[in-house]
Every structure is written in structure tokens, then in C-alpha cells.
Amino acid sequence: MEKSTLLYKQLRIAKFNVNQALALVKHDILLQSDEQLKQNRITSKSHLNIYKFKGEIISSKSDREKALLYVESLFLNDNANFDKLKYSQIKSKFKKWIKAKKTKKEEVKLFNKLLRIADEFSDRKIKPETLINKLSVISEQVTRFNDKKRALETFADLHNQKTSLNIDSSSQLNTRLISLLFKIPEHNEIELNAEKQENVLLNYYQENFSNYEIILSSIHKDEATRDHVHVVIDGLNKQTKQCDFVQNQYAYIKLKYELIEYPDLYSDCKDREVQIIGELLQEDFYNYVNDKLINNNIMFIKKEYESIQHKDLERDVIKNDTGKRIADREYNTANYLAKQKDKNYLENINLKNENIKLKEENLNLLSTIENLVKSTIDFAAEYAATALQRALLNFKDSYKKLLKINEFIADKARDEAIKIQQTDQSKKDIINISQKAKATYRANKN
């Protein structure tokens, strides 16, 4: 099985950064200036590129310009024409009155209803006179009646105005576009065409983040590097209508990898937690790719930089420390610094040795799986050709060994074994003996 690293990057573009979004899309769909195209592209091969806008292939420059306009429209709104601050202040007043002890239960019910309308039914218009009537009939003892009456009138006026405008109520820092790059670096000798790369990348996001629309997909075949894929995803959740891609991606990893002690919100994560989440996202995608390409005899592994990272970390710590007053320095003596440096060096060596050991174990396991899959298929082929009971029993033994390592891979090998049989009887024999082997395996397992 050939092993390779791959280049998989995810760039998140905040809602206010329209220029960055447009520059990125112009690169993806070949709408840069002539000078930029000459610098970055082999224009004689540009006709080989493949562009998809919302799943449909587009080819003409006019179609690509329409796609660019669509992306630009995602960043346009009527916020400048709406007094968002006053609207927010009125809602805050409602929340304050809800908590006040003197507020009547009927008032609390009314204010809660209006807050829900503001958050969940933004397209529903409100009649201000209806609100005033409801407030008037609650009780003659409503405190600060005139203040609440003005607040209701203002709320109704602003809310009705909001229903006819394109108002973006979420944070301007939220991610609106997600840009993806997937390619196999030049130094790798394996071959996986860009169409297959695109298929795997799109399926990963469609399966795990289906609430977010894939706007653009571009296969580049006109650059000096290998053919590769760019994808642009809309960060607006089709269900919640919020730009919550980053939070949902975090929740996906938190749940899948059982990070029960991590905070509920990604924004509350510490730097180290953010780093770990990024590594797990990378690992999750690698695992997905490897599962999808298991029959292609390809295995992707992450590129590691342990020694460089440890060295950079040590230098940064020392550099920051030496900028302080001597009395405040953590490393205030040359001897202590030397001991700490030696300690870090030894820890680094141990980590590297541990990593080498784990890699060797992983490679040995992969080699064992490869050999077992091959022998399972070979025995099945022998049985298809000879109908010898010995070949069938050998298939069973090999299949059982695969089950102990990975049930999914074992079943893939079994399915292939069934396919190569020449008669219905031999297919039944393979199915029956596989079922018995699996039943025995699961019984022993339990």
C-alpha cells in the first residue's frame, strides 16, 4: 500500500472581509487579471479546468462572473439603513422588565412573546395598537406604563421595518465563507486524479455538514503543481439561518471524540484546546479519505514536524523571558537554563522514540492487514476455480483473522470473495461460512 501525505487546508473568511472572499473566488474560477493569470497559471491548459456552481458545471466567463456576483451578494445587507442599536436596547428593556419583581405575570408573558417573535419569527409584522391594548387591559397598576407603551411602539415600528429589509443580525466576526484546498504534494509518487479528490472532499462535507451549501467547486489543471481541488462553502446554516459553521464543526469533533471536559462554545476554548481541535479535524478528514480509498491501495498519513516545533517553542520561551527584568525572569541563572534545556532535549528524544515505535507498530499492522486481505481473496479465488474444501477452510481462517483486526475491512474482503465466485452454490458457501465465522467471533467477543 502506497503511503503519502496530502495537502488539506481550511480557510475561514469573516463576514466583513468581502475583499478577501472575492480575491479567493477570482483565483478559484479564473477571474484574476491577465497579469496575475500569466504569473500563476499555464493559460494554454486553462480550458481543462472544471468549475461547478451549486453542483452544476459552468464554463463560460459570463457564468463564472455570475458566480462571483453571487458570492459578493452574501456579504451585502441593509444594516446601514436600520437602527440595530435601538432595536437591541428595546429588547434589553424587555429582558430587564421580565426580571423585575413588580412586573405582572401577564406583562412577562407579553414581553417573552415579543422576544421570541424577534428571534424566531423575524418576517412576522406586528400591529402596535394591538400591543398597547394588551398592555392596557393587563391592569391599571402596570408600573411605568408610559415608558413601556413607548417601548412597545418603538419595538413594533423597528420590527416591522426589519421585516422589509435584509438585516444581518449575527456577529460581523462570524465566518461566512469556508475555503478548502485539497491536493497531493509534488514529492509524492502516488496518483489520484483531481476528480476523485473532489468527490471525496465534497462527500465528507455533505455527509457531516449538510446544512451548509457548497457554492463552488473548482478543479485546477493549469498550474505548475499537480491537479487539485478548491471548494467554497457558505457558512450560513440553512436550518438556523446563522453563520455557525465554526461552532457546529467544533460540536461535531467534541461529540465524535468525546471531549466531555471541553467548553460548549468554541469561542470559550483555550489556545491549547483550539490547537487540539484543529489536529482532530485534520485527523478526522484523513480517516475519512483512507476509508473511501481503501480499495485504491493508497494510505494517507499526516506530515509531522515534532522536532521543529519543540525547537521553536523553546526559543520563543527563552526569547520572551530574556526581555524581562532579571528579577522577573523565570530563567535567572545560566545553570538553570542549561539544565532546563537538557531536560527539554531529553523529553524531545523520548517523544521522538515513542513516535517511531508507534509508527513501526502502525506500519506492521497495515502490512498484516494487506497480507490478510490478499490471502483471503486468493483462497476465495482458489475455491472458485477448484471447489476444494481446503480452499474454503483457508478462506474462513483468513477471514476470521481479519475480523479480529477490523470487521469493516473483513466484510469488504468477504464481499469481494463472493463476487469472484463462478456459481451460485460457491457464493452460498462463502456467505454461509462467513456468517458462521462472524457469529463465532462475536460470541467470543461478548
Write the topology of this structure.
Elements: E1 2-4, E2 7-14, H1 18-28, H2 34-40, E3 50-53, E4 56-58, H3 61-73, H4 84-99, H5 105-120, H6 128-138, H7 145-163, E5 175-183, H8 194-208, E6 214-220, E7 228-234, H9 245-256, H10 271-292, E8 298-300, H11 306-322, H12 334-386, H13 389-405, H14 407-419, H15 424-445
Parallel strand pairs: 1-8
Antiparallel strand pairs: 2-5, 3-4, 3-6, 5-7, 6-7
Helix pairs in contact: 4-5, 4-7, 6-7, 9-10, 11-12, 12-13, 12-14, 13-14, 13-15, 14-15
Explain this structure.
With 446 residues, this protein is α+β, with helices and mostly antiparallel strands. The chain contains 15 helices and eight strands. The protein has a six-stranded antiparallel β-sheet, sandwiched between helices. Strand 3 (50-53) and strand 4 (56-58) form a beta hairpin. The chain is extended, with a radius of gyration of 31 Å. It starts with a strand and ends with a helix. Residues 317-337 have low confidence and may be disordered.
Brief summary of the model shown:
With 446 residues, this protein is α+β, with helices and mostly antiparallel strands. It has helices at 18-28, 34-40, 61-73, 84-99, 105-120, 128-138, 145-163, 194-208, 245-256, 271-292, 306-322, 334-386, 389-405, 407-419, 424-445; strands at residues 2-4, 7-14, 50-53, 56-58, 175-183, 214-220, 228-234, 298-300.
